[in-house]
Amino acid sequence: MGFIFSTDESSDELVAATNIVRQLKNIEQFQNENDFICKVLIEANVGNRKTKTSDIVMVCSFKKPMRFEFKPALVYSHINDKNQDLDLKVSTLQIENFIACIEVKFQGDDKIRFSETNSLEVLYPKQGYWSDASKQHQNQLHNTRRYISRDRSKPPLVGGFIYLHNIKKNQFENSQKRDFPINLRCNDHGMGFIESIAHQIIQFKKASYIGRSAPPIIGSCFNKDEIDYYIESNWVQTNPRPSKFDMARMNAIVKNVEEWHYDDLSKRMIEYRGLGGTGKTIKLLQIAHQTYLEEQKNVLFLTYNWALIIGLKLTMVHMSIPHASSDRGGIDVDSCSSFFWGILKNLGYISKEDSDRIDGDLNLYDEIYKKALTECVKDLKKLDEIEIKELLRESTNHNLKVFSDIVLVDEGQDWMPEEQFILESIFQTKNILIAYGKGQETRGNPTIWGKHLTSSHHQNKDCDKRVHTLHKAMRMRGNLGSFIKTFADLTLTDEMYKRLEPNTEALEGEVIIIEGDYFDQKDLRNELSKKVEEEAGDVFTLDLLHIVPPKMSVSDFDHGLNESLIWDGIDREKRKEIPTSENMLRWINYRSCRGLEGWITFNHYLDDYWEYEFNTQKIDIAQGSLFENATEEQKRNEAFRWILIALTRPIDSTIITLRDKDSELGRVLQDVYKKHPSFIRWID
């Protein structure tokens, strides 16, 4: 069989893999294609943790164990019973199979260096930043091992190395010496590739095995069926097919924004204000795409919402938009907490002891995080722009996204003041764009970005901040927009929804209100299933959205759905994984629904959620002003405002279930129903 590549699509990683394979073919054990099969996976998808893809993964199996001689001998290190560090020399190995994870670097020899601990560091010239490539590779190797090993009774051992594609061995004086990292290979290392893999894998063995075997037989897997599973690449994560609904979103993103919007970029702060569903996020993504495509800039999108992160990452995959890189540009999507945690940790404001304390008690997270933010802000206030950049460059552990060219801020009205200050200090206000949701504040008093800037709604070259207010309900069909306006008129004490313009270009839209559990409505479920089936290709199951009250989970519903086809956005860990099929159904908590959309949204027990917000919501977490101190009218207004955030998620239809039709929310919905019986159905 020989070498088999997973793709022939042109990429830097394919070029690197081709060179490695070319050199392996010069080794005797790889010259007869009938003796082995080696699958070469280019940018294998390994989940959705810190490392989403592995540059190259090689999975190789020999028909019979192949004997390899190593000169100088490989060193097997172990600690004996007396706590002594002993070394064994291993000069001959028989290899049955192996799995190797390879990190590719294209920097030249003038853009690499070694730290005092012998870690490889690479320079990103555009950012003027040295990054710890050895640590990056360890993270990639760990994540690949974790992903490959999931759900396997006998997880395989995985080796790997950093491959320097543009550097030869003779450019290192010590390339043949022991202190040269064995997990670092150059363009012409040849047999050194196998040497590196073999050395790492024997470290997983026991000293007794190495000592009694002559020569030892090593391999990532010892079960032929197991290695066949990996060669067939059944473990590589797949992505859902995009529906026409997804295609419409992508077509909207690739559309260039108005010239007078784009002209402000990197000249002044830009803020998009609007109610839910008016297209704020799409505006940001349009600018991100145009900036990446035309100027090869690196763009960072920050949000609190993990469900939105997953949706945007999937959109980036469908659009073949890469992560940010040093020279080609790209778009990264990250959580605010993860981004700032990384900065605080790398700058020394969060210690390993802090992390260990949180591992022991998750309730300590907020206290430690806020204390670190406060200390960081205090120090940054003493520095100017140049000094802050130099401070960031002192640590080689930062992710490259810290040096992005443009930053997009999602739900800017809810950011902590300390986070806002740090972001403005690192990136400068002129490189920040904000989506600001009117009536969608969840922390009480809204965050004001660029307080010290001269602001204008008009094209004014002298202003430092440009504000655009969006009024048209871009997401929802026309009837849904009318439903929202009527609901807001009956509930809110202010008039923020007065200027909302229902979308006249997308007519129709239906609201269905149910007394009781949706899953008890067999006829309706069949009706909606047929509706989705009839729009097959236009809409997939993944385009639907189930929303549940806090403290409820998917298992609280007798849904009868295939558990493997549920994307659980409620679970803290499961919500970080990208859906693997277009047939998966998304479930989220009401408090996580901002910024999301669904072709059909299912608002389960909306009256329970209203009661939750009425009784427990805080007006201003930052100032400690508890909701219980507010008037009844304020409580009621806030609860209805949260309900409107959920009701502005759908595109075509929304399903609402009530536990009690005579609850306060139930009575409001009855009034709305009386005003719009033509497109609202009530099922008792």
Give a quick precis of the structure.
The protein has 3 domains: about 1-230, no CATH class; about 245-470, P-loop containing nucleotide triphosphate hydrolases (Rossmann fold, 3-Layer(aba) Sandwich), CATH 3.40.50; about 480-684, 3-Layer(aba) Sandwich (Rossmann fold), CATH 3.40.50. It is built from 19 helices and 24 strands.
Please explain how this structure is put together.
This protein is α/β, with parallel strands linked by helices and 684 residues long. It is 32% helix and 23% strand. The protein is built from 19 helices and 24 strands. The strands form four sheets. Strands 1, 2, 3, 4, 8, 9 and 10 form a seven-stranded mixed beta sheet that branches. Strands 13-12-14-15-11-17-16 form a seven-stranded parallel beta sheet. Strands 20-21-19-22-23-18-24 form a seven-stranded parallel beta sheet, with helices on one face. A hairpin with a 7-residue loop joins strand 2 (36-45) and strand 3 (53-79). It starts with a strand and ends with a strand.
List keywords for this structure.
single chain; 684 residues; Rossmann fold; 3 domains; seven-stranded parallel sheet; globular
Counting DSSP E segments of at least 2 residues, the number of strands comes to: 24
Low-confidence stretches: 619-627
Q: Evaluate the radius of gyration.
A: 28 Å
Q: How far is the N terminus from the C terminus? A: 64 Å
| Domain tally | 3
> What is the approximate shape?
globular
Q: Can you count the helices?
A: 19
